[in-house]
């Protein structure tokens, strides 16, 4: 029995025992918060075999510390200050950074206060097994606890606490290592305070606490070469605390303090939003804000004021007189800033030249534009939140100083991000020559007002550019897809039988069979795309004796295996969705579930969640019921296969009849849906043929074929989703997981309407989804069947994206799904690959009384938080998938170029610029730019440009939006960045190579 | 509040009038019982104090005990004029009273407290946060735990101590000043946060509209600056009038046997003449101007003693809770 003593504390000690602070709430109230503090003497120092501490306490740090650092031959532990974690987290996390670390509670709290993402990385660091990290609760150990002095700033107080703890540790070590006769005391290891705060170092020196700056520390480490590159740019200030910045001219305005920004936004004088860079013009960006129907346009460097794609920025809007239309020119960062030297721009020497270039680029005649096209303009006055992460980049080889291309000297180079939305990043590295031609990961550290480019540091190499592995990984990183393999804790959540798991024989005692309908005898089949391994839906239909038809959709019962608040559930929630790349699938759930236990394979018994309707022959729903079930699928078809079977008049077995029945119902359902105003949207979808799984060369690209059976499956899935949405919303009006598609604001269509009217004389009615569907049907060009698809694609781009939401979070009248013209909708049918569906399964199970609802799903906040993640992941997954296709299209084109000498394709003009055309190659699903070196006659009003004819003497050729042109497609490798890019040139009506 | 018989009343009156005057606990006429004061007893409040008069030194029982706590809340107000005080006598102090009578009594006490403390002339000057938009609303809660006579003196002492102890969190007003005019002055330094006291420089520039919109707490650990008006919160002195003489610090029985009480509220600013903040006559007896005049003179004298003693103790308490506690912590 441990002895329990109660320490009673007199009230007089309130100053010591109570920690008081004020907090300002979001509503502007001020709350006084009081925390009790109990000081104790039994908090262990965490060093092995320490005699002074409790012997039973857990220890992490080795007895002699780390002896490999040249400044500390007797061994040492490091005790980093807060600024080290704030600025140098990459260094600390590196696998080469091995010294034992003592993290103080004060430091942890300060990091949390300053940056939550860094705090969670720090937390992760303390829990990894391979690192020697000890968290010391210095505020609770009586010797190291401190009380704030009168007039001491919080920062000073924390610094003092950190120094106090460092001092205590060093004296404590002498107790832990009592002097042994014959050995001098100098053999003791030291606890070294690492800080980049000059003042703190000075004070520590005065108190004789060993301390060192990060850079000096890393310099003395045995693998300093690898580690020095990881130092972030902020760490570069050396002994002198203030660098002479004054001499350099500021290129940007300073940001306003955060509190001012918040005040301004609250008062409605400033606007907050996400910064979107313009991918065609690096000197332009937009910020959509609710206050204006059109996004705020930011023109030029000064107005974008160091905002990077994705940052949450605060914008000041200019006077209405200064409102402009966006430029109609393509401005390429690489072309414009080709001569900018990385080393030199430290001085910003050729400032004038760059300035001239850019201002020329910006000097588009906005005034000529029709006033309706004007957008509010503004400038960024502050950043609420940086969304900087690691970016995939190439080293710009021209930025290397040529003289030392092979040396290992430190040099400043440019890294060009793969994404066109990002600015070039300047970084200092010793490994520059070896990095050329590789894809590398670079993090932005800061962006000073005096520097044209953000500064960053090198994180790691992904591999040779254009190698499949590097491209694949860079793609996943670029879209922030979590792709690490599933950890042990997650795999432990799987059934222990593994691959051998089967549905147990039917018995009342078996938990699997509790409240489950036995549907094993039904003629159920699944219809999926070719090569599908994760079959999560299956269907059946049969005639009932009363003349009606029973149709059922059976979805894999994932919620039977994935329970709330388990490691697997958390991981799935974080991943949000399975990501499909051309050559790889990043699973949301471990493969055992996805491709086996939850996959509704034919001829095996599987657990399912069934939605069963009774319908009339005209597909009117008479009744619907939901039940957990056990099914045994009779067949797994591919779309084409099912189609053949349905159309084969010789076949007349039960299965075929079932498919035909389903098909007839689906057609009626679709007709009804269309009548209700559902949209038939189009997006370019192409399929990549891979030769074999080993060979990397894609053989061909073709457009996806659509069978009638595709639509069959789709209709029933839509119906199931709608029925389930109604049910869960009734049962859980506050927290049910739903999906909606908001109607797009009519202004989104203005441009498309204008183009259609001027070029084709067609009217687009966007007053409702039904009207839009009708007018889209009328957008026909008898000579050009693909024209309709093109308009659909362009209309789709004008719309908002669908999103998941929690039913209690938005008003009831915004539940509708615009595209599907359904008043309520959710996702229920793919729980293997979408997390939202897993939640919906849980809610439906609770709605039918199968299981109680997990408390977390009763919390509106919790559901909202998950929805936010899932929405983002969903978007990212789509973008990653698309980018993967694009990469392979590029590879395929390269292959074709080699074989065929010249690849030419038909393309549609979708945008006109002053100096180029945006074209869409529908056969390849590829969008590209045709650039002209010379200015052309550009008519922005009518969306046409006139280019000189290739034959001298002939009149100019006019090209306008929706014209069909022929383009030559080449894949050229950018000399500087090794970035393969598709280059398009016009073949007809004119050859643009001459232009 | 004690109801006593006529005989008891006569007995107490005659002994008070005898020469030398006799009181049940042996005190002189102008002697106080022992007063105990402790400040900072409610850590979550912005200022607080407990006062007990005549507590039994041996068992800690008996006596009049009053706790006062001041709480500051952010309020959006038009002119930021009002601040409230509230007096709540807990039923345990007066177990014999009916709820209605308790309400009445409470109202009596609150009205006296309010009329004196909420007077516009002694409104603290540092309660503003954003001029015209936001200010601190000061709530003073006074709870009577037990009443053994001389309740008003105790209430005002506790109130003064709590207000003296009150610290106003420091705030910094934040604003966004829209920049008008052409873009050429973009490089001009923009001073965006302007302290309330510091925006003098730009008075000539009429193009700039100054609008303070929000505030922040520059130092979340700091209790803040003392509430303005330490010199003005008055003390109360109750003169119990028995024709021909007056005495102080009455017990319940004594209170019940005098026909008239005079409450005087005095404050003694350091550099100014004593201020009479108010007075009240309570009871059924009568008095005249001449008598009141002489009583006021005496009252001022007694009140000054109370003031000085309270001031000393409050400073002592402050020291005990901060500096000494820290020193003890360092030397442990």
Automatic annotation (TrEMBL), chain A:
GO terms for molecular function: 3'-5'-RNA exonuclease activity; endonuclease activity; RNA binding. Residues 76-202 form the PIN domain. It comes from Suillus luteus UH-Slu-Lm8-n1. Its main location: cytoplasm. It is found in: Cytoplasm; Nucleus, Nucleolus. Residues 341-351 have a biased composition (Acidic residues). The lineage of its organism: Eukaryota, Fungi, Dikarya, Basidiomycota, Agaricomycotina. Keywords: Cytoplasm, Endonuclease, Exonuclease, Exosome, Hydrolase, Nuclease, Nucleus, RNA-binding, rRNA processing. InterPro entries: Dis3_CSD2, NA-bd_OB-fold, PIN-like_dom_sf, PIN_dom, RNase_II/R, RNase_II/R_CS, RNR_Ribonuclease, Rrp44_CSD1. Residues 333-352 are annotated as: Disordered. Belongs to the RNR ribonuclease family. GO terms for biological process: CUT catabolic process; nuclear mRNA surveillance of mRNA 3'-end processing; rRNA catabolic process; rRNA processing. The keyword Transferase does not apply. Gene3D superfamilies: 2.40.50.690, 2.40.50.700, 5'-nuclease, Nucleic acid-binding proteins. It holds the Pfam family Rrp44_CSD1. SUPFAM superfamilies: Nucleic acid-binding proteins, PIN domain-like. CDD domains: PIN_Rrp44-like (cd09862). This is Ribosomal RNA-processing protein 44. Its cofactor is Mg(2+). GO terms for cellular component: cytoplasmic exosome (RNase complex); nuclear exosome (RNase complex); nucleolus.
UniProtKB/TrEMBL annotation, chain B:
Residues 31-169 form the Exoribonuclease phosphorolytic domain. One of its GO terms (molecular function) is mRNA 3'-UTR AU-rich region binding. It is found in: Cytoplasm; Nucleus, Nucleolus. Its main location: cytoplasm. Keywords: Cytoplasm, Exosome. GO terms for cellular component: cytoplasmic exosome (RNase complex); nuclear exosome (RNase complex); nucleolus. InterPro entries: ExoRNase_PH_dom1 (IPR001247), ExoRNase_PH_dom2_sf (IPR036345), Exosome_comp_Rrp42_subfam (IPR050590), PNPase/RNase_PH_dom_sf (IPR027408), Ribosomal_Su5_D2-typ_SF (IPR020568). Signal peptide: none annotated. It comes from the Eukaryota. GO terms for biological process: exonucleolytic trimming to generate mature 3'-end of 5.8S rRNA from tricistronic rRNA transcript (SSU-rRNA, 5.8S rRNA, LSU-rRNA); nuclear mRNA surveillance; nuclear polyadenylation-dependent rRNA catabolic process; rRNA catabolic process; TRAMP-dependent tRNA surveillance pathway; U1 snRNA 3'-end processing; U4 snRNA 3'-end processing; U5 snRNA 3'-end processing. Belongs to the RNase PH family. This is Ribosomal RNA-processing protein 42.
């Amino acid at each position: 029995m441990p002895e329990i003593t109660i320490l009673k504390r007199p009230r007089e000690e309130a100053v010591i025992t109570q920690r008081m602070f004020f907090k300002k709430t979001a509503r502007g109230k001020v709350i006084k918060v009081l925390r009790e503090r109990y000081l104790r003497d039994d908090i262990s120092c965490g060093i092995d075999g320490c005699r002074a501490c409790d012997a039973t306490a857990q220890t992490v740090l080795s007895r002699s510390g780390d002896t490999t650092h040249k400044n500390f031959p007797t061994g040492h532990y490091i005790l980093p200050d807060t600024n080290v974690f704030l600025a140098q987290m990459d260094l600390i996390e590196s696998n080469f950074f091995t010294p034992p670390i003592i993290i103080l509670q004060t430091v942890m709290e300060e990091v949390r206060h300053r940056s939550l993402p860094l705090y969670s990385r720090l937390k992760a660091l303390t829990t990894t097994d391979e690192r020697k990290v000890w968290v010391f609760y210095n505020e609770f150990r009586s010797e190291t606890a401190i009380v704030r002095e009168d007039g001491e700033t919080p920062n000073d107080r924390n610094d003092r606490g950190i120094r106090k703890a460092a001092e205590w540790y060093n004296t404590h070590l002498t107790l832990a290592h009592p002097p042994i006769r014959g050995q001098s005391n100098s053999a003791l290891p030291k606890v070294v305070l690492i800080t980049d705060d000059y003042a703190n170092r000075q004070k520590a020196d005065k108190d004789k606490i060993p301390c060192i700056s990060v850079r000096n520390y890393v310099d003395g480490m045995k693998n300093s070469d690898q580690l020095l590159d990881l130092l972030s740019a902020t760490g570069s200030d050396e002994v002198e605390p203030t660098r002479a910045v004054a001499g350099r001219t500021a290129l940007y305005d300073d940001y306003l303090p955060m509190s001012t920004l918040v005040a301004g936004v609250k008062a409605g004088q400033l606007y907050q939003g996400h910064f979107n860079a313009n991918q065609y013009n690096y000197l332009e960006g937009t910020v959509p804000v609710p206050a204006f129907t059109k996004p705020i346009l930011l023109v030029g460097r000064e107005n974008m004021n160091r905002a990077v794609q994705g940052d949450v920025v605060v914008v000041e809007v200019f006077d209405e007189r200064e409102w402009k239309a966006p430029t109609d020119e393509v401005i390429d960062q690489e072309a414009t800033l080709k001569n900018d030297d990385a080393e030199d721009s430290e001085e910003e020497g050729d400032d004038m030249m760059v300035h001239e270039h850019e201002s020329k680029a910006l000097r588009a005649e906005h005034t000529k534009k029709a006033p309706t096209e004007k957008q509010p303009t503004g400038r960024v006055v502050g950043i609420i939140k940086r969304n900087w992460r690691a970016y995939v980049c190439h080293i710009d080889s021209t930025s290397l100083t040529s003289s030392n291309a092979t040396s290992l000297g430190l040099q400043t180079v440019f890294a060009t991000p793969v994404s066109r939305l990002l600015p070039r990043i300047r970084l200092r590295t010793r490994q520059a020559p070896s990095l050329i031609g590789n894809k590398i990961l670079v993090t932005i550290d800061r962006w000073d007002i005096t520097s044209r480019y953000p500064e960053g540091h090198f994180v790691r190499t992904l591999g040779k550019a254009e190698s499949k592995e590097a491209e694949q990984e860079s793609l996943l990183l670029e879209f922030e897809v979590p792709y690490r393999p599933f950890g042990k804790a997650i795999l432990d959540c799987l059934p222990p039988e593994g691959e051998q798991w089967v549905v147990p024989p039917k018995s009342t005692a078996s938990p699997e069979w509790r409240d489950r309908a036995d549907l094993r005898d039904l003629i159920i089949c699944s219809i999926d795309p070719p090569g599908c391994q994760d079959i999560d839906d299956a269907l059946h239909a049969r005639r009932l004796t009363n003349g009606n038809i029973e149709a059922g959709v059976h979805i894999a019962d994932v919620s039977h295996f994935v329970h709330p608040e388990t490691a697997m559930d958390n991981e799935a929630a974080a991943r949000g969705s399975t990501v499909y790349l051309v050559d790889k699938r990043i699973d949301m759930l471990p493969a055992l579930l996805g491709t086996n236990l939850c996959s509704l394979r034919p001829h095996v018994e599987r657990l399912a969640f069934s939605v069963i309707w009774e319908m009339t022959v005209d597909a009117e729903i008479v009744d619907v019921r939901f039940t957990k079930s056990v099914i045994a699928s009779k067949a797994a078809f591919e779309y084409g296969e099912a189609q053949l079977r349905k159309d084969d008049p010789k076949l007349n077995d039960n299965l075929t009849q079932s498919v035909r029945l389903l098909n007839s119902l689906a057609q009626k359902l679709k007709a009804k849906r269309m009548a209700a105003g559902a949209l038939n949207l189009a997006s370019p979808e192409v399929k990549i043929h891979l030769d074999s799984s080993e060979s990397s060369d894609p053989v061909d690209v073709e457009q996806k074929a659509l069978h009638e059976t595709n639509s069959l499956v789709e209709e029933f899935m839509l119906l199931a989703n709608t029925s389930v949405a109604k049910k869960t919303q009734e049962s859980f009006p506050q927290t049910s997981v739903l999906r909606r598609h908001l109607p797009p604001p009519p202004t989104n269509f203005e441009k498309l309407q204008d183009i259609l009217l001027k070029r084709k004389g067609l009217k687009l009615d966007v007053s409702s989804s039904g009207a839009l569907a009708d007018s889209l049907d009328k957008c026909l060009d008898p000579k050009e069947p693909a024209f309709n698809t093109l308009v659909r694609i362009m209309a789709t781009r004008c719309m908002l994206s669908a999103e998941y939401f929690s039913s209690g979070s938005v008003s009831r009248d915004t539940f509708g799904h615009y595209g599907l013209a359904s008043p309520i909708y959710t996702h229920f049918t793919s729980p293997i690959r979408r997390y939202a569906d897993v939640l919906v399964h849980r809610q439906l199970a609770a709605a039918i009384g199968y299981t109680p609802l997990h408390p977390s799903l009763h919390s509106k906040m919790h559901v909202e938080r998950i929805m936010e993640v899932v929405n983002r992941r969903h978007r990212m997954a789509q973008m990653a998938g698309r980018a993967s296709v694009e990469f392979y299209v590029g590879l395929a084109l390269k292959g074709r170029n080699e074989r065929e000498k010249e690849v030419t394709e038909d393309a549609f003009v979708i945008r006109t610029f002053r100096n180029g055309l945006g074209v869409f190659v529908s056969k390849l699903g590829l969008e590209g730019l045709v650039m002209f070196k010379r200015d052309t006659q550009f008519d922005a009003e009518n969306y046409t440009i006139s280019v000189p004819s290739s034959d001298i003497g002939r009149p100019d050729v006019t090209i306008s939006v929706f014209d069909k042109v022929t383009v030559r497609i080449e894949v050229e490798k950018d000399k500087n960045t090794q970035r393969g890019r598709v280059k398009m040139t016009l073949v007809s009506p004119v050859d643009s190579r001459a232009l | 509040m004690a109801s006593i018989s006529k005989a008891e009343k006569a007995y107490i009156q005659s002994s008070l009038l005898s020469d030398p005057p006799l009181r049940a606990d042996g005190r002189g006429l102008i002697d106080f019982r022992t007063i105990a004061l402790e400040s900072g007893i409610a850590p979550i409040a912005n200022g607080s104090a407990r006062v007990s008069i005549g507590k039994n030194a041996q068992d800690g029982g008996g006596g009049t005990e009053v706790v006062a706590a001041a709480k500051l809340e952010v309020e959006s107000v038009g002119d930021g004029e009002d601040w409230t005080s509230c007096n709540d006598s807990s039923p345990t102090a007066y177990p014999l009273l009916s709820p209605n009578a308790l309400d009445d009594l409470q109202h009596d006490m609150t009205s006296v407290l309010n009329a004196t403390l909420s007077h516009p002339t002694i409104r603290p000057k540092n309660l503003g946060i954003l001029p015209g938009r936001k200010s601190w609303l000061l709530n003073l809660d006074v709870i009577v735990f037990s009443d053994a006579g001389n309740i008003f003196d105790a209430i005002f002492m506790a109130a003064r101590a709590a207000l003296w102890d009150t610290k106003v969190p420091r705030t910094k007003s934040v604003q966004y000043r829209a920049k008008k005019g052409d873009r050429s002055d973009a490089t001009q330094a923009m001073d965006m946060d302007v302290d309330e006291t510091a925006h003098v420089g730009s008075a000539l520039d009429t193009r700039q509209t100054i609008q303070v919109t929000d505030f922040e707490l520059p130092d979340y650990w700091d209790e803040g600056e003392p509430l303005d008006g330490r010199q003005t919160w008055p003390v109360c002195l109750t003169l119990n009038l028995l024709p021909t003489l007056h005495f102080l610090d009455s017990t319940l029985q004594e209170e019940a046997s005098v026909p008239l009480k005079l409450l005087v509220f005095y404050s003694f600013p350091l550099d100014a003449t004593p201020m009479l903040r108010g007075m009240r006559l309570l009871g059924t007896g009568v008095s005249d101007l001449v008598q009141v005049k002489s009583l006021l003179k005496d009252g001022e004298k007694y009140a000054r003693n109370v003031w000085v003693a309270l001031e000393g103790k409050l400073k002592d308490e402050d020291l005990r809770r901060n500096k000494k506690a820290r020193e003890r912590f360092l030397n442990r």
